């Protein structure tokens, strides 16, 4: 797969641990996954705000935003979605190395792709958060009018309509956004991070 040859890893003197010590919290990826309109962006924005108030150093990667730049050569075929998630996994890994709590909001519909990201980092560095809402609810919300277009046949291969979404089998957290408020969800995630000693 890799086209890079004759390359040799060069270590830094400053380690991930040293960077984490400066920040006084552990670094991790909070991987939000779910249907379009389930609430990934909304929740990750609100959670980042809360984490910032608590003094954590964060960065948020969002599907729509990253597809404007780094991944603007990728579409929505299964292969392109896999490549999208692979790149985000690698970027998130760099951010973990930099000592950040990274929040990612990508549909990431395939379990294998999410598992590949999980396997890129240490066991406790990947926290999969299933943002769960029924297709009916997401379609009712339709914040960008995309379900309407997909139903009208104007968008092909739309997740949940004519492209698959594989539900997480073993997520660290499931947030049911048609039952839980945004504030409750943020509190649930912050409590998890405190109990597991990611945050001091
Ligand atoms: N065909 C199709 N299927 C799903 N989504 C589509 C599609 N075309 C465009 N969009 C818009 O792109 C956003 C999803 O991008 P992601 O990078 O998160 O997708 S993926 O993880 O690679 O599957 C998604 O954003 P969210 O609604 O925030 O999930 C949509 O706004
Ligand atoms: N409990 C909730 N959590 C998150 N979003 C919610 C909730 N209840 C209603 N919403 C609404 O659902 C929509 C979710 O859209 P968005 O965050 O863009 O989803 P996604 O990023 O998964 O596509 C927003 O309009 C948001 O205000």
UniProtKB/TrEMBL annotation:
User: InterPro entries under this entry?
Assistant: APS, APS_kinase_dom, P-loop_NTPase
Pfam families registered for this protein in UniProt: APS_kinase
Its EC top class is transferase
Q: In which pathway does it act?
A: Sulfur metabolism; hydrogen sulfide biosynthesis; sulfite from sulfate: step 2/3
Instruction: Recall the GO molecular function terms of this protein's record.
Output: adenylylsulfate kinase activity
The segment(s) forming the APS kinase domain are: 27-175
Reactions catalysed: adenosine 5'-phosphosulfate + ATP = 3'-phosphoadenylyl sulfate + ADP + H(+)
Annotated keywords:
ATP-binding, Kinase, Nucleotide-binding, Phosphoprotein, Transferase
Q: Which residues bind ATP?
A: 34-41
Q: What is its EC number?
A: 2.7.1.25
Q: Does the keyword Membrane apply?
A: no
Catalytic residues, per the record, are 108 (phosphoserine intermediate)
Q: Which domain of life is it from?
A: Bacteria
Q: What is the annotated role of this protein in its UniProt record?
A: Catalyzes the synthesis of activated sulfate.
Give the similarity note.
Belongs to the APS kinase family.
The protein's name is Adenylyl-sulfate kinase
In its UniProt entry, the species of origin is given as: Aquibacillus rhizosphaerae
Name of the encoding gene: cysC
């Amino acid at each position: 797969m890799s086209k890079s040859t004759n390359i040799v890893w060069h270590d830094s003197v400053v380690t991930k641990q040293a960077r984490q010590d400066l920040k006084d919290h552990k670094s991790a990826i909070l991987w939000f996954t779910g249907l379009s309109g389930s609430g990934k962006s909304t929740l990750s924005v609100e959670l980042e705000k809360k984490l910032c108030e608590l003094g954590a150093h964060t960065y948020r990667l969002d599907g729509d935003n990253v597809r404007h730049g780094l991944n603007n050569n990728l579409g929505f075929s299964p292969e392109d979605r896999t490549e999208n998630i692979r790149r985000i996994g690698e970027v998130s890994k760099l951010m973990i190395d930099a000592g950040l709590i990274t929040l990612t909001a990508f549909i990431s519909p395939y379990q294998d792709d999410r598992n590949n990201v999980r396997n890129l980092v240490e066991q406790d560095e990947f926290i999969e958060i299933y943002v769960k809402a029924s297709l009916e609810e997401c379609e009712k919300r339709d914040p960008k009018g995309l379900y309407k277009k997909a139903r009208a046949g104007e968008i092909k291969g739309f997740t949940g309509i004519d492209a698959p979404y594989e539900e997480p089998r073993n997520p660290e957290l499931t947030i049911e956004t048609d039952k839980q408020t945004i504030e409750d969800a943020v509190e649930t995630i912050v409590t998890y991070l405190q109990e597991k000693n990611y945050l001091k």
